[in-house]
């Protein structure tokens, strides 16, 4: 048991310099991580927007009630407003010198709001299919 503890202690002492190096590398990588996350939220929003329009048109054609459609449209308008605020800080595909953190906050909020609208449309369409089945 003492031998295992001694080996463990030696390993811990040997790993301390590597832990410091990893921490230093992480701080240098944090900007790259923020840029990657920003682009991810941007692409998720763009993809979600096309899905929203497709589902909205299906919902109108299927005869989903106006209350649901109004709620969904309000969520979409809120998401679009957040998207516009995000873009006021710059476009992640065109600029490397932009305010990344404020952009990511608003873009994330825009996507989550849009995702809520999409979920509401999907649930309404499933409910309508269940009634017709």
Highest CATH level, the class: Mainly Alpha
Strand content: under 5%
As residue ranges, the low-confidence spans are 18-22
What is the alpha-carbon Rg in Å?
Answer: 24 Å
Structure description:
By secondary structure, this protein is mostly helical. The protein has one domain: Up-down Bundle (Butyryl-CoA Dehydrogenase, subunit A, domain 3), CATH 1.20.140. The chain is built from three helices and no strands. About 4% of the residues have low confidence.
Q: Which keywords apply here?
A:
single chain, 133 residues, mainly alpha, Butyryl-CoA Dehydrogenase, subunit A, domain 3, 0% strand, elongated
Quick overview:
This is Pyrolysin. With 133 residues, this protein is mainly alpha-helical.
Write the topology of this structure.
Layout: H1 2-62, H2 66-87, H3 100-132
Helix pairs in contact: 1-2, 1-3, 2-3
């Amino acid at each position: 048991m003492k031998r295992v503890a001694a080996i463990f202690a030696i390993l811990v002492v040997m790993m301390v310099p590597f832990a410091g190096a990893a921490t230093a590398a992480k701080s240098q990588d944090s900007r790259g991580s923020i840029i990657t996350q920003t682009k991810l939220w941007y692409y998720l929003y763009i993809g979600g927007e096309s899905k929203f329009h497709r589902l909205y048109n299906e919902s109108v054609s299927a005869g989903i009630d106006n209350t649901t459609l109004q709620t969904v449209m309000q969520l979409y308008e809120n998401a679009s407003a957040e998207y516009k605020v995000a873009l006021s800080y710059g476009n992640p595909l065109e600029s490397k010198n932009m305010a990344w953190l404020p952009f990511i906050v608003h873009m994330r909020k825009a996507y989550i709001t849009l995702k809520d609208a999409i979920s509401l449309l999907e649930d309404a369409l499933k409910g309508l299919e269940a009634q017709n089945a």
